[in-house]
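Thread title: Can someone regenerate the structure for this chain?

I was given the following input by a collaborator and told the matching structure tokens would be attached. They weren't. Posting the sequence so someone can regenerate them.
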Amino acid sequence: MLSDFSRYNNRFYRIDDVGFDLNPQMTFKTADEEEVSYMKYYEMKYNKKLSDPSQPLLKIKSRTKDIHLIPELCVLTGQSSEMRQNFQLQKDLNVHIKPNPSSRLEGCKGLIKSFESNPVTKELLKQWDISISKTPLEVKSLKIQPGDLLMGKNIKFSLEGVLDLDRKIQNQMFEQPELKRVAIFYSKREDQENVNRFTDYLKQSCETFKYPLDKPRLFPIEGRDLRDWEKAFEENLKCNVQAVILILPGKKKNCPFYTDCKKLLLTKYPIPSQVVVSSTIASGKNLGSIVNKVLIQLCAKVGGTPWSISNLPFFDKPTMIIGTDIVHKANMKNKSILSFCGSVNRHLSRYWSTVSEHSSDHEIGEGIQNAVKNSMNEFQKINKYFPQRVVVYREGLRYTLQDIEINAFLKAFEELNAQPEFFFIHVNKSPNAKFFAMDSRNQTLGNPEAGTAVVNDITEGNDFYLISQKILHGSVNPTHYSVLKYMTNIENKYVDKKLKITEEIMMKLLELSYKLCFLYYNFSGAIKVPAPLQYAQRLAKLVGDTWRPNEMLIPAKQFQEFKSLYFI
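Best answer:
Regenerated them for you:
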């Protein structure tokens, strides 16, 4: 899949196909029902004369009609895999696309200077009585401590300033479910050597993590068609198989059987699975680290807990953390995909999750209401009681959906006769604000350190900015959190206390949000948003990327019973 930029109308398109049977001499009907050739159309409308009348056309499939573009009037966008692997090229490119704080600030000053020197913008600023300071606003910040990462056998270490986290987590995991029946499928013709190398590394990883994993059973695939893989699944995947590892031919992001095999293992044969592409094994680069991560993901996918975080705030009483996401793509027309992940254990490693398709905002509300009821019932089955506190993280919320979604939670609580304390937090990981830190030793600008938070000066009392990651290149982007609702049940009636949030509660929300960024098991370290939200987005992407009209991938119900992170 390629994307290009058309120079004549400054628009970006994603190329679906190349029409070698088409050329610019062919005709089409304009909006006025006039028959005209592509060559003549571009010359009349854009004053562009084509040099090659026999060149093929680029095909773009839109919701309403197919679009055809002329290759010589387009330029490719993005980078090829060779370009991304060129270290020197990426280093030179980052100077321009990822400016450091000093360069970014100088760029802002240059822009302000151009406003003041340009007669047109100068007059507009005067008319509106606007003045722009060349000096950035100074604000007070806080430093939030991430706490300790908890591993198995009471091993723990501080996350503050840790540089070798990948190495430190190479210990027994916090909770390691025993894996006695793991199946590995691979192409016998292409990957016999690769599977031997992979199993050797997997054995070493199990020894490092002290993981109770019996020797996996190997299933070679004789043929080269998808049907051969499906036949092997049908013959060998019995109900007692705990996990599947697929070694698929091809390269990363260009693996021919990936989507189809994952779909089979999510629907027809519902078993937690992990894919490793053969080119990754064959290259041998960082293979030990890659296999370690495969083992960590397998642990999470079968319901284990790779690691936990110490002293999570709000867990003085039963608490559920929820992440929700709604995906809508151009080809879906009026359809939207709702994903929902609700924690069911104290260590936030097990989730009841669901994904569903909806055609209206009303349906989305009903979908959330059902998901809340089901997740809280599962929480009760495991913990013997409903959660007494529910914290929801949501990104990209439309204003028109805000009340619908919040009311869906309240209706679900009422139907269950549950009365949890309720927080609904909107997350924006791309706000306009930029923060710089002054190094007092040499008076240079740099990025604020991870755990930096801003709760005053530019906030409104129910929101905060948080920097959860350490950035080595470019300028860090903060994440903005807004508490849209804080409600408690008083005498069987929910009361909105958003305007009365105490400093103590805000600090707990801040600390909770930061610590949750370390609980995403696809990455060793902090991510930009709390893990439950990232899990919901991951599930939505898994389904959204494979969505077709009347053909939506719905994971089997068995996965809800597993309550594991099978989709990461």
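Residues 81-127 form one domain.
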